[in-house]
Amino acid sequence: TGVPEAQLAELAHLLARANTAMIISGRGSEQQAQGVNNTLAWINVALALGLVGKPNSGFGTLTGQGNGQGGREHGQKADQLPGYRKIDDPAARKHVAAVWGIDESEIPGPGKSAYELMSALGGEIKTLLTFGFNFAVSAPDANAVRERIKQLDFFCVSDFFLSETAQFADVVLPAAQWAEEEGTMTNLEGRVIRRRRAMAPLGDARTDDDVLCELARRLGRGQFFEYANSEAIFNELARATAGGVADYAGITYDKIDELQGVHWPCPEKNHPGTPHLFRTSFATASGKAKFHAVRHLAPAEEPDNEFPYYLTTGRTLAHYQSGTQTRRVEKLTEMVSECYAEMHPDLARQYGLNDGVHVTLATRRGTATLRVKLSNGIRRDTIFVPFHWGGNQSANALTNAALDPTSRMPEFKVCAVRIEDGIRQD
Questions:
Q1: Three-state SS sequence of the chain
Q2: Whole-angstrom distance, CA of residue 16 vs CA of residue 50
Q3: Whether the predicted pLDDT of 264 surpasses 50
Q4: For the chain, what is the mean pLDDT?
Q5: What is the pLDDT of residues 118-129, one digit of tens each?
Q6: Does CATH place domain 309-419 in 2.40.40.20?
Q7: Tens digits of per-residue pLDDT, 155-198?
Q8: Among candidates 149, 160, 159, which has minimal Cα distance to 127?
Q9: pLDDT interval class at 424 (50, 70, 90)
Q10: Residues of CATH 2.40.40.20 domain(s) within the chain?
C-alpha cells in the first residue's frame, strides 16, 4: 500500500487503547478488484476490538451518494428484493410476491451488475431506460461504454439536465430534481428520515415514480402501480420488507416525523426502532460473529515499462458524482473549474512539467488531457484524477473495468498509466 509499517503499528495501538472508536471505510477501499476483502479486513479489526454493538463505536461503509443505503434496502439492486432479501431466496420471493399481488414466478432471477449490463448494450440488451444515470462519464472504460450505447435500438433517459449520457438518447424525459420530490432517505446508521419537497417541478418535469407508474399503465400493468402519493409507495415498501434484514414494517411517515427518524429494523408499529445493531448477538446461526481469512490480492493492472505509474481516481470537495449538477453551479466551478492531474513535484520534474500546464495521460483504454496540479501530499509513483468531468477530461476514459468477484464493483481506484509527450504551455 505504500503506508509505512510504523504508521500502521501506531494506528493499531491507537485503536486498541481507545475506549470508543468508529471505523468508517469509503469508496477508496471498495472500488478495487479486492474491495470485498478490504472491507472484510476492516470488519475483522472492528470485531477484534469489540466495536460492533458497543455504544459510540462501530463499523460502517460510506455509500457513494445520498440514499445509497436506502436504495439497496428498497431492492434496487438486480440481485435483491426489498428488505435486503436475496432475489433467489424462495421464502423472500413468496413474501414479496404476495405483497405485490403477483405470482412469484413473475419475479425474475438475479440480473446483471451495473457494468455487466453496460457490457451487454447493443447485444443481449436492445432497449434501455435510465433515471439520473450519467454513465457515459461515470462508468469505467468509458470510451467503450459510449460506443456500446450507440448500438442500442432505443435509448430513453429521464434526467433533470441534458447530461453527456442524455446526448446519446433517442428520447429524453424531463425529470424532477430531488428537492422537487417527496420521499425518504436512509443514512449510514440505518436511520430512515423524511425528504420533503421544497418546490414543485418546473415545466413538464415529472417525478420518477410518476414516470414509472405511467409506463406501467401503458404496458398494461397499471393495476400494480396505483399509488396516490409517495407515502402510499412507502407503505407498500414497509410491508414488502417485513421480516427482512432491513425491516421497515413498523415505520410510517407519522412515526418518522414524531421521532425525527427511525432506525431499522422496526418490525411493528409500537417498536421504537433499533439504533444499535448486534448489542446481544449477531445474525448467524450461533449468534456469534464470524471472522474472515483475507489474503491480499494485487490490482488487476499494475505499472510496467509501458505504463509505469499508478492512476487513482476520486472526488473533489466542490463537485458531486459525474458533475451533472455541480458543474452548472457558478460558486462550485469557481472552486474547481476543470479536471486536473495531481502529481508529486518530483514526478513532474522528470517530464519538465510545471504547475498549471496541460498534459496528456494514457492507459490501455484511452487518453485524457488535463491541467497539472502539483502536490507534496501524493506518492511519487501515483497520479490522481477526479472523475467529475467527461469529454477529453474524462478520468473514466482511463480506468480499468476489472470487477470484484463478489460485489462486481469495478476497480476505479487503481490502474497503470503513463505521461504522454506533447506538453502544451499556456
A1: CCCCHHHHHHHHHHHHHCCCCEEEECHHHHCCCCHHHHHHHHHHHHHHCCCCCCCCCEEEECCCCCCHHHHHHCCCCCCEECCCEECCCHHHHHHHHHHHCCCHHHCCCCCCCHHHHHHCECCCECEEEEECCCHHHHCCCHHHHHHHHCCCCEEEEEECCCCCCHHHCCEEEEECCHHHCCEEEECCCCEEEEECCCCCCCCCCECHHHHHHHHHHHCCCHHHCCCCCHHHHHHHHHHHHCCCCCCCCCCCHHHHHHHCCEECCCCCCCCCCCCCCCCCCCCCCCCCCCCCCCCCCCCCCCCCCCCCEEEEEECCCCCCCCCCCHHHCHHHHHHCCCCEEEECHHHHHHCCCCCCCEEEEECCCCEEEEEEEECCCCCCCEEEEECCCCHHHCHHHCCCCCECCCCCCECCCCEEEEECCCCECC
A2: 10
A3: yes
A4: 94
A5: 999 999 999 999
A6: yes
A7: 999 999 999 999 999 999 999 998 999 999 999 889 999 999 99
A8: 149
A9: very low
A10: 309-419
Residue with cell 413473475: 106
> Tens of pLDDT along 15-55?
999 999 999 998 888 999 999 999 999 999 999 999 999 98
311-323 mean pLDDT: 94
Q: What is the mean pLDDT of residues 395-401?
A: 97
Residues β-bridged to residue 386 = 314
Distance between CA 313 and CA 17 in Å, rounded? Answer: 34
Strand pairing report for 309-314 and 382-386: parallel
Q: What is the pLDDT of residues 347-371, one digit of tens each?
A: 999 999 999 999 999 999 999 999 9
| 8 Å CB contact between 360 and 298 | no
Give the relative orientation of helices 230-241 and 90-100 as an angle to the nearest 10 degrees: 150
Q: Within the chain, which residue ranges are assigned CATH 3.40.50.740? A: 68-263
Residue pointed to by grid coordinates 517530464: 351
Q: How far apart are CA 221 and CA 52, in angstroms?
A: 44
Class of domain 68-263: alpha beta
